[in-house]
Design a protein that fits this description.
Layout (H helix, E strand, L loop, with lengths): L6 H15 L4 H38 L15 H11 L10 H16 L19 H22 L3 H32 L4 H6 L6 H4 L1 H15 L10 H4 L9 H26 L13 H23 L7 H29 L5 H45 L1
């Protein structure tokens, strides 16, 4: 097998043969090579995470008419390493009365919940960690670890503001997980599989975004809320909670929460690309070599990450009651309706031509979105009229 077609397989086979030749048991050699592969992926992700700090700071600087990092290294590229050194040498504190085991475990779980997702992310047609036939379910399970880490951090800190911040963020995450997980079912229905690689391969002729643009939009909104980024950044409600669930963390413990958030944003960008934009596929270039497929996938993931940053640095924070009402009253029912419409049309038009199927799916998304907006507009008008009537009655009573 050529190294340019499947470099990881060739390198793994060579290393296993080398270890076996040294007298190591073949099973143990296979496990050791797999462990080294996992460590290589983690190292690459952490290096990407370091440069995401630079990208994030440069992007927000441009949005705010600033320069951003520009002192250390060319274009300020060395600045993230200086930040890491600063976090490492800062005093590592643990608040009095804190549950030390849970307190110290929370940032580790926060980072781990992001890293384990990449185990089922296909970087190229022949380059992925585990080819699970239930990869979508694995994403759901891995995401639950992040929710657990936040409530662990808030509860174990022995700080009322950290606890409230943890409760608020978990309330948002649990609420918006429902429409997000519902939208995960749409690519599953369209591809006929829960395998991540199969979902990518099913988008050879057309991206699922063209079949379900509303589904892609709902998934993006729910992902932003899941990340706790503006306008859903209740975990960082400085005006009410000082700093949210991580207020008592310092040094690299805080750095792990921050790094996990950045990598999580890029991970959601990658998942968004896999589910709705063809993942590593781009006009057949991915078939030439994995060295072309990987940059294609990373470019799509970075585009999704940039859109998430764009929303964060453009929109203001909304109140938690507005946020939860938006989810339970509007987004969740809309996602359920869209899922049912997509499943129904997928069955009815299974034998139809490609163009009829694609146009019908796209039109159904537009129709469902338009009806949802009209219903929301009608309900908001009634609430506004009711509020104006109550205000008028109150003024008359006072007068």
């Amino acid at each position: 097998m050529s190294f340019w077609i499947n470099p990881l397989k060739v390198a793994a086979d060579w290393l296993e043969g080398l270890l076996t030749g040294w007298g190591l048991d073949p099973t143990l050699a296979h496990v050791l090579v797999a462990f080294l592969g996992v460590m290589l992926l983690i190292v690459i992700l952490m290096v990407i995470d370091i440069f995401l700090v630079w990208i994030e700071r440069k992007t927000v600087a441009r949005f705010q008419d600033r320069l951003g990092p520009n002192r250390l290294g060319p274009f300020g590229l060395i600045q993230p390493f200086a930040d890491i050194i600063k976090l490492i040498i800062k005093e590592d504190t643990t608040p009095g009365g804190a549950d030390k085991v849970v307190y110290n475990l929370a940032p580790i779980l926060s980072m781990m919940s992001v890293l384990v997702v990449w185990a089922v992310v296909p970087l190229a047609p022949v380059m992925l960690g585990v080819d699970l036939n239930v990869g979508v379910l694995f994403l759901i399970a891995a995401g639950a670890i992040g929710t657990l880490s936040i409530i662990m951090a808030g509860w174990s800190s022995n700080n009322k503001f950290a606890l409230i911040g943890g409760f608020r963020q978990v309330a948002v995450m649990v609420a918006f997980e429902i429409p997000m997980l519902t939208m995960l079912m749409i690519p599953t229905i369209l591809a006929g599989s829960m395998n991540m690689n199969d979902i990518i391969q099913a988008q050879g002729g057309r991206w699922f975004f063209l079949l379900s643009p509303l589904g892609a939009l709902i998934f993006l909104i729910a992902a932003i809320a899941e990340l706790g980024r503006a306008p859903f950044d209740l975990a960082e409600g400085e005006s009410e909670l000082v700093a949210g669930f991580n207020i008592e963390y310092s040094g690299m413990k805080f750095g792990m929460f921050y790094a996990g958030e950045l990598l999580h944003a890029m991970t959601f960008g990658g998942i968004w690309a896999i589910l709705f934009f063809g993942g590593y596929r781009f006009f057949g270039l991915e078939l030439v070599s994995p060295f072309l497929a990987i940059p294609i996938f990373l470019a799509k993931a970075l585009i999704g990450y940039w859109i998430i940053m764009w929303v964060k640095y453009t929109m203001m924070r909304i109140r938690i009651d507005q946020m939860l009402i938006f989810n339970w009253v509007f987004l969740t029912p809309l996602s359920f309706v869209l899922l049912m419409v997509t499943a129904l049309l997928n069955v009815l038009l299974r034998d139809a031509s490609t163009w009829v199927y694609a146009v019908s799916m796209f039109a159904s998304n537009l129709l469902v979105g338009w009806i949802a907006l009209e219903v929301a507009r009608s309900m908001s008008k009634k609430e506004r009229t009711k509020g104006e009537g109550n205000s008028l009655s109150l003024r008359r009573g006072v007068g």
